[in-house]
Amino acid sequence: MTDARTLSQADVLAAAARIAGHAQVTPVLRSHSLDALAGAELHFKCENFQRVGAFKFRGACNAVWSLSDDEAARGVVTHSSGNHGAALALAAHTRGIAAHVVVPAGAVRSKVAAIRTFGATVHECAPTQAARDAMAADIGQRTGARLVHPFTDPAVIAGQGTAALELIREVGALDMIVTPVGGGGLVSGTALAVAGCGQSIRVIGAEPSGAADAYESLRRGSRVLDVVPDTICDGLRATIGPLNFELMRKHGVQVLLVDDAETMAAMRLVWERLKIMIEPSCATVLAAVLRHRDIFAGQRVGLVLSGGNVDLDEIRFSAIAAQ
After folding, report:
1. Which of 58, 201, 272, 307 is the most exposed place for a label (fewest CB within 10 A)?
2. One domain for residues 120 and 246
3. Strands, DSSP E only, in 26-126?
4. What is the reported pTM?
């Protein structure tokens, strides 16, 4: 697996077999009141119930268990603001190997604590992409650890697509699947998963308007790298990856924008109607459906709720505006 031309649904199917027994098969929830509000039939794939509380465990687990014994013995390294770092730490633990996670200063404290809980060594760096890349590369050179990138690694992308496979198998035919989009691992993995399923399913990415690099990249036809993210969605601040961008273009992924107020209102709705806690990044999918009702009206829609790791000390519930 090396580029957008060689990655396919077969890689997602192989990932599903590889991570079986490690990853959870997460539930799909329904809400008639949210269906009525959206004017569509909504199926919520609850990856907030996945191990480490996020879909990220799927890709990290596939990457770790794809390694040869010699590669695994040298450990793994990544950079992450939280969920991917925790996922890689746990995946490494399942194989009994070392994990190093480079974390930018200012990352969500509860997520950093989870990384340490799962046994990884945490290395703090400056809060820039360049600093993250440089420190991870240095650790890899010094230790021989294999870099498992949060979203551009082909094994990670294939692993993330397994959530969509499970969703389709449980609920049957869908018209659309909506996922959050940050670096693009989940949305591009989802596109791979549906490409060979025999259904005509549109894949849509929900992106904060304050971090709209994927939207602008697709609009312009080339990656936009100069967006400075300004959004409450800490998991969606990464720049779209080159492989992810090519997969999104190849499979006709559409990106819809939502603002932070809409995202927080959707987060509150999920709490009120489904009785579950999700991250702001995750709430973008419902926010997109509600903002763009004309696109989803009358459709059977799968929404991937990507994670539920909320720092309760930081969230001001009074600021979560009602619709």
Report:
1. 272
2. no
3. 28-29, 41-46, 76-79, 99-104, 121-125
4. 0.94
